[in-house]
Amino acid sequence: MTSNFKQAAFALAVALVALTGCEQVIDLELDENQTLPVFSFRYNATTDQVVGTINESVDFYSPTVPALETSAAVEFIAPDGSTTAISPVAELYLGNVDAAPATGDTVGLRVVRNGLEYVAFNDVPDSLALDSAIVREFEGFPFGPPVDSLEGPQYEIYIYFPATEEPRNVFVEFLVNGELQSDILQGLKTTPGEPTEIPLGWSQRLFNPGEVVEIWVWTVSDDTYDYWLALSSILGAFGPNGVPGNPPSHWSGEALGHFFVGRLTPGQVILPQ
User: Fold this and answer.
1) Which of 196, 221, 249, 268 could in theory staple to 8 by disulfide, Cβ–Cβ 3.0 to 4.6 A?
2) pLDDT tens, residue by residue, 85-100
3) Model pTM greater than 0.85?
4) Residues 228, 233, 239, 245: is their CA dihedral positive or negative?
5) Count of CB atoms within 10 A of residue 39's CB?
6) Tell me: the pLDDT tens digits for 61-85?
């Protein structure tokens, strides 16, 4: 069954949600009383918008989360070297720039905090169209309980991308009834010359009748893809082998977090009643 699929408006309020699930960053390689600044920023090269947060890392066993900071100076660096100040709005940094970068251009972000400067650069990727979305009624997992044990119908959502000549780094997020599903990291590298099909949420997430699902498909730079791949590995590595290390940092100074650069294709699926 084909879903009710359409391009969704990329509203400002929606952009802000992307950062709310990642405010606490844990130090895994520092002394007990040592912390690092955490700069988590996104640049959407499709809409020329920058949004981000600044705070400090915490010890692995810390029961508290540091407050978000808004006292640093933040600048976006366009491909031609011109800069645009990104000002705080409430607890976030938020701003629109006038860069309109081409694929392969390099953009940057400069943060000056407590007299120290931190700079990160990243390349702008090509875009990738979200071809379609298909809703399928869930028929049960192999070796799992029968479908008739569920309370009413449940659905899976499959999304499709067209074939491209070069591989693309894809990062997928989704919201259900306006709530970001931040417990699943979903990224992949497409295979050249082949269309791509993936289940939304890696088949770990079923959807209920009437739910409205907003889908954000990001094509991202190699640096951003490597960062999220490392982060995903870290989140899955806790166990008897010990505590993993911090994800790679691309800031010029000692800091955690990442300057995420990508192009966004949004979409919407409305599950049948």
Assistant:
1) 268
2) 999 999 999 999 999 9
3) no
4) negative
5) 26
6) 666 778 899 999 999 999 999 999 9
